[in-house]
Design a protein that fits this description.
three-stranded antiparallel sheet, 3 strands, mainly alpha, transmembrane helix
C-alpha cells in the first residue's frame, strides 16, 4: 500500500529514478498523487488546496489510490483532485453497507499494488506505467465497478460543468434553440 516513509527519504535509492526525495517535496515538486496527499488517521488531506476527505469504511490508503485511479480512468488536467475525491467518496459509503463491495474494492486496490511492485500503484510516477496496469485489469469486476460509478460520480458534479463548457440542462431555461444553438462560430 501507500508508503508514508517513501515520501520522506533523503536520497533516492539506486535504480529508483521515480522516487520523491524529501528535498523535492520541500521544493514543491511532486511525483504522482500520493506525494501531495497526507493521510492522518482516517482522513485524507490536501494541504496545498485546503480540502480533505474522511473515510469510515475503506482504508485511507485505499481512498488515495482510488482518487489516482479515478484520475487515470478519466484524465482531465484542468479538474482539481477534490472533484475526483468527491467522485470516489460513495465507494466508502457503499463499503460500509455491503461487505462484498468492501472486499471487491480493497482486493482490487491490493491487486493494483501487487502488479505495480514496490511502492504500489500510487508509487508509480508515470501515467503510462499505471495505464499499462489498468489495461491488464480492465475486464475485472473491480475495474468495471469503479469505472461505471465514476461516470456519474465525476460528471454529475455541477461545480465542474463550467470547466467543460456545459451550462446544464436547458429545458427550464427555454431550450437550446433560444440559448445559443446558432452560436456555432467554427462552421
Amino acid at each position: 500500500m501507500f508508503n508514508r516513509k517513501a515520501a520522506t527519504r533523503d536520497a533516492p535509492q539506486p535504480n529508483d529514478k521515480h522516487r520523491l526525495s524529501r528535498r523535492d517535496l520541500l521544493k514543491g515538486g511532486t511525483v504522482g498523487l500520493g506525494a501531495i496527499l497526507v493521510i492522518s488517521g482516517s482522513s485524507i488531506i490536501h494541504p496545498e488546496f485546503a480540502w480533505g476527505l474522511d473515510t469510515s469504511n475503506l482504508k485511507p490508503e485505499t481512498m488515495v489510490t482510488l482518487i489516482q485511479l479515478a484520475r487515470d480512468i478519466y484524465p482531465h488536467d484542468h479538474i482539481p483532485d477534490r472533484f475526483y475525491a468527491i467522485a470516489v467518496k460513495p465507494y466508502d459509503a457503499k463499503a460500509g453497507e455491503d461487505a462484498e463491495t468492501k472486499k471487491l474494492i480493497e482486493d482490487g486496490i491490493a491487486d493494483l499494488d501487487k502488479r505495480a511492485g514496490k511502492g504500489g500503484y500510487i508509487g508509480l510516477g508515470w501515467e503510462d506505467d499505471r495505464l499499462a496496469i489498468l489495461r491488464k485489469v480492465e475486464d475485472t469486476p473491480f475495474f468495471q465497478t469503479v469505472r461505471g460509478g465514476l461516470v456519474t460520480g465525476l460528471y454529475n458534479q455541477e461545480e465542474i460543468w463550467p470547466l467543460f463548457g456545459y451550462e446544464g440542462e436547458s429545458y427550464s431555461k427555454g431550450g437550446y434553440i433560444a440559448r445559443g444553438f446558432s452560436d456555432i462560430e467554427w462552421l
